[in-house]
Automatic annotation (TrEMBL):
<dbReference type="GO" id="GO:0016788">
    <property type="term" value="F:hydrolase activity, acting on ester bonds"/>
</dbReference>
<feature type="domain" description="SGNH hydrolase-type esterase">
    <location>
        <begin position="24"/>
        <end position="203"/>
    </location>
</feature>
<keyword id="KW-0378">Hydrolase</keyword>
<dbReference type="Pfam" id="PF13472">
    <property type="entry name" value="Lipase_GDSL_2"/>
</dbReference>
<dbReference type="InterPro" id="IPR013830">
    <property type="entry name" value="SGNH_hydro"/>
</dbReference>
<protein>
    <submittedName>
        <fullName>SGNH/GDSL hydrolase family protein</fullName>
    </submittedName>
</protein>
<dbReference type="InterPro" id="IPR036514">
    <property type="entry name" value="SGNH_hydro_sf"/>
</dbReference>
Length: 219
């Protein structure tokens, strides 16, 4: 993101014509596995921001289903991306939990990724948004995974406690979508047809939760 003078920062309106760049970092929850691309939360967020007169370009997404923190780190290095962005979202960790990886390693790698996200936002912490890990244990896949919903929920909560503490300590915005993700236990419309990933409806809830925070920072 280009540096701006806070004393003369213009309001972003359709008339201003300013194009806003957006980088989304993550895994399957960021690319929107099992839903149409436009139904993923980055694209729904882009659409919601446009209704506020904020002209967001097509999101640049670095995310793949199955990625852990280390795999996201490696992918970022491989892209050799040196562009700065007007805002950045980060959602990562479910595959660390799913694979039974060390939470100590997760803390280290998540903290590094958060600093990378801040760097992509040109060092502006107010333009970085971390989203918590949803609870996949309540999905049909989770119920048939061989692990109890309670044990999955506890592990997800432990990983989220770690990423929230790191995020808040860094002075970055944190959006906790995990409690709402557990509504999928009663509301199957929140789950995609694959029985595991969020539906467009749930992604829309995430985008709506992010919208006012991003609007406040960009306008």
């Amino acid at each position: 993101m280009p540096a701006t003078d806070s004393t003369s920062k213009p309001t972003i309106t359709p008339a201003s014509g300013k194009e806003i760049s957006y980088l989304a970092l993550g895994d399957s929850y960021t690319i929107g596995e099992s839903v149409k691309q436009v139904e993923s939360f980055p694209y729904q967020l882009q659409s919601l921001l446009k209704t506020e007169g904020i002209n967001v370009n097509t999101p640049r997404i670095i995310a793949t289903t199955g990625w852990t923190t280390s795999e996201l780190q490696s992918a970022i290095v491989q892209t050799k991306l040196n562009q700065k962005f007007d805002f950045v979202t980060l959602l990562i960790g479910v595959n660390n939990q799913y694979r039974g990886n060390s939470i100590i390693t997760y803390k280290k790698e998540f903290a590094e990724l958060l600093q990378t996200a801040i760097s992509f936002a040109n060092g502006d912490k107010s333009k970085v948004y971390v989203i918590s890990i949803p609870d996949w244990g309540v999905t049909p896949f989770g119920k048939n995974s061989g692990k109890s919903q309670q044990s999955i929920a506890k592990e997800i909560d432990d990983f989220n406690t770690a990423n929230q503490e790191i995020t808040i300590a860094a002075g970055v915005s944190y959006t906790n979508i995990t409690p709402e993700s557990r509504n999928a236990m009663q509301d199957l419309s929140l789950i995609a047809n694959d029985g595991l990933h969020p539906s467009a409806k749930m992604y829309g809830e995430w985008a709506s939760a992010l919208k006012p925070k991003v609007v406040a920072a960009l306008k």
